[in-house]
Design goal:
The structure holds two protein chains of two kinds.
Chain A: E1 5-7, E2 10-13, E3 19-24, E4 31-37, E5 44-50, E6 53-56, E7 65-68, E8 75-79, E9 88-95, E10 103-104, E11 108-112
Parallel strand pairs in A: 2-11
Antiparallel strand pairs in A: 1-3, 3-8, 4-5, 4-9, 5-6, 7-8, 9-10, 9-11
Chain B: E1 4-7, E2 10-14, E3 19-25, E4 29-37, E5 43-49, E6 52-56, E7 59-64, E8 69-74, E9 83-91, E10 98-100, E11 104-109
Classes of the chains: A mainly beta, B mainly beta.
Chain lengths: 113, 110
């Protein structure tokens, strides 16, 4: 069975440009998470979806970050405009439901110049 | 012909040697970046140039706008300098999109 798929794997952009990341969770997983991970640190939750509803987006910097999961399956995370400090790995994870095992994708490594 | 060309593609040096990596481009640019990529994929921005010369530690980057050419120099090279060095340019005609060279694989032996 395919795991969590993310694309692109790497992205390099100049500051002030927009960027979008895509995630396809494991089939049947209702819960989808977006995390940000800085070098040498653990993942920080940005947003959690239950189906198409964002149930926890308290850590999402809403002035520049947005996310959507329109049909309750794939999700996109967007940053506009990107800042130098946004350079990090953006991880997507999915689980059957809240509190169950999360399965992580390979991440998108973003570099903002 | 690629819009951005780097040379050499591969470079092997002994510790302590002076290293030069070249980047040539064929159209007008508004900025040029030198990037360093270590095994594992992490990319570090070394310099952004639009004219002249910049220096940071043992690294020196120069650009000649008229000749459409930039060089990255490493003085007193060290094995930890081993990495891929990438030249990227912001073309005048492409807005903010970057065009990348193919990179130079540098190996510095002790």
């Amino acid at each position: 069975e395919a795991g969590v798929v993310q694309s692109p794997r790497y992205k390099i952009i100049e500051k002030k440009q927009p960027v979008a990341f895509w995630c396809n969770p494991i089939s049947g997983h209702n819960t989808l998470y977006w995390y940000l991970q800085n070098l040498g640190q653990g993942p920080e939750l940005l947003i959690r979806y239950e189906n198409e509803e964002a149930v926890d987006d308290s850590q999402l910097p809403k002035d520049r970050f947005s996310a959507e999961r329109l049909k309750g399956v794939d999700s996109t995370l967007k940053i506009q405009p990107a800042e130098l400090g946004d350079s990090a790995v953006y991880l997507c994870a999915s689980s059957l439901g809240f509190g169950t095992t999360q399965y992580f994708g390979p991440g998108t490594r973003l570099t903002v110049l | 012909k690629n819009e951005v060309e780097q040379s050499p593609q591969n470079l092997t040096a002994q510790e302590g040697e002076f290293i030069t990596i070249n980047c040539s481009y064929s159209v007008g640019i508004s900025a040029l970046h030198w990037l360093q990529q270590h095994p594992g994929g992490g990319i570090v921005s070394l310099f952004m140039l639009s004219s002249g010369k910049k220096k940071h530690g043992r690294l020196i980057a120069t650009i000649n706008i008229q000749e459409k050419h930039s060089s990255l120099h490493i003085t007193a090279s060290h094995p930890r300098d081993s990495a891929v060095y990438i030249c990227a340019v912001r073309l005048e005609t492409s807005g903010s999109r970057l065009t990348f060279g193919e990179g130079t694989q540098l190996t510095v032996n002790p």
